[in-house]
Amino acid sequence: MTSELDRRAVVAALLKEPGELLVVAGLGTATYDVGAVAERSLNFYLWGAMGGAAMVGLGLALAQPDRRVLVITGDGEMLMGLGALATIAAQRPQNLAIAVLDNASYGETGGQQSHTALGVDLAAVATGCGWTHVCRVREAAELDTLRRRLREEPLFAVIPVSRSEPSRHLPPRDGAFLSSRFRATLGVA
Amino acid sequence: MQQASWQDAVYEALRRAGIRQLAYVPDAGHARLIARAHEDPEMRAIVLTTEEEGVALATGAWLGGERAVLLMQSSGVGNCINMLSLPQNAHVPFFTLITMRGEWGEFNPWQVPMGSATPRVLEAMGVHVLRAERAEEAAATVEAAAALAFDSTVSVAVLLSQRLIGPKVFVR
Prior knowledge:
heterodimer, A: 189 residues, alpha/beta, Rossmann fold, six-stranded parallel β-sheet, two-stranded antiparallel ribbon, 38% helix, B: 172 residues, 43% helix
């Protein structure tokens, strides 16, 4: 699925005025994107644990039901943990949304095609798992609406993005620092 | 239900430890704990499709200020290996109760390789391993393990031996 949307511009639009939004970024370019556009203490970056971003988001959303949680990840990371879509749908947390930046490839490892280039439809998978709020966004003009929906609805959004590699921005990767900073900011340390 | 007594004591130990999220892949040996969790309005019971989901969930729970436990069978430990790097790297507690297969009177040979490797696999990934062999020590072991995990911020597993679970659960 080809798209002209630039992933970093998409993430910048989604994280505009983040307020107290709790953000989990999935391993790979999604972590670089989130760090590049809005490095902040309420971001938790995954530098490993591939397939775990959505479930980190669920544990966080259940623990903080009065806060909004947004998971931003890539198609490859989401594909490794597809079962999480079933597990999350079964729990029906109203404060958790997932945005998948879908470039249909494994950008970190040489740009090999991912399953979404080969016919797998992540939005349809989410629908099949029981997600009732699912959307695909292809136009830059839709991003303002998407930002609002991701902060109000239990939304699963797939955003096709171009395969262009943005400049690499490396956010902090000391997990102990990231978790301590996150918990202290949240007031649960 | 003869087994209910020690399993209920284990559940009470989980409650005293402040656990609020109980994630599980269904297992007959954990059935009583799972049923108690679903009945308990103070506990969130979360059924998983695969065990490593629970490792990531527990990390998210801790980030949000809650404590989680993962209930699984020894066969599920292999599914968790890489995900165990998450709580270790993030300096976040991880706490799991594991019902053992492949040891005491196992009738299914397919359970033996992972059951035999379970303690070594956990230890290789930096998880502290405690073991309960007898009903009267189960709750105390769980209580001590929870304290170790959450007070000292490490990963801890309690192996509930197949002898403790009892062959009745598994043998037809």
